[in-house]
Amino acid sequence: MERIWAPWRIDYIVGGAKEPGCIFCTKPVSDRIDENLIVHLADGAFTMMNKYPYNGGHVLVAPYKHVSDPCSLSPEDNSLLIQEVCRAVQVIRKVMKAEGFNIGINLGAAAGAGIEEHLHYHVVPRWNGDTNIMPVLADVRVIPEHLLSTCKRLRAGFNRLFPESSREVEK
Questions:
Q1: How far is the C-alpha of 14 from the C-alpha of 23, rounded, in Å?
Q2: Does residue 126 form part of some domain?
Q3: I need a surface site. Which of 65, 87, 91, 145 has the fewest CB within 10 A?
Q4: Residue 160's pLDDT is what?
């Protein structure tokens, strides 16, 4: 029998301690880029790995401004945010060979927002045939690569494909 390891999910499963403050406000300004799974910093918005992904390569794209609704952003800030979403799609398509994407925003707890106070897009890569028996029978998703490894590969992809938009992200 094959064993499947995803140790980073245990905090989510057992309802671990919630991180203090807003992760979308504190993580992009911290110097702990790898620990915070920061993929890319751009003007107006940034990309980070989802710590509890639906699929490998699942990222979150958020504005730096602490708002809960896209209608609270200026047209310029919304433009910068969607530009970062488009960069994330292009990088994931190139680096991970994604064949499709689910992209969306959950506004409010009723819509499924886990962090409803700070607007963020989910960008979830998909592949033809990526549904297997594990989610159906065991309610388990298999993520074949460690989050930090995926983070570093995507970060390199951003820096390679979009060097002009990248703020300094070293590691």
A1: 19
A2: yes
A3: 145
A4: 94
Active site residues: 120
Sign of CA dihedral 156, 157, 163, 169: negative
Q: Kind of pairing, strands 45-49 and 38-41?
A: antiparallel
Q: Which domain CATH number covers 71?
A: 3.30.428.10
- Scored b (16 or more CB within 10 A) or e, 153-162 reads bbbebbbeeb
Confirm or deny that 50 is annotated as ligand binding. Answer: yes
Half-sphere exposure of 156 (CA within 13 A, CB side): 9
Q: Is residue 2 part of a domain?
A: no
The pTM of the full predicted model, rounded to 2 decimals, is 0.84
Mean pLDDT by 10 residues, the chain (171 residues): 56 63 95 95 97 90 97 98 98 97 94 93 89 52 80 95 77 45
Whether 89 contacts 72, CB under 8 Å? no
| Residue 91: partners with Cβ closer than 8 Å, 6 or more residues away | 40, 154, 157, 158, 161, 162
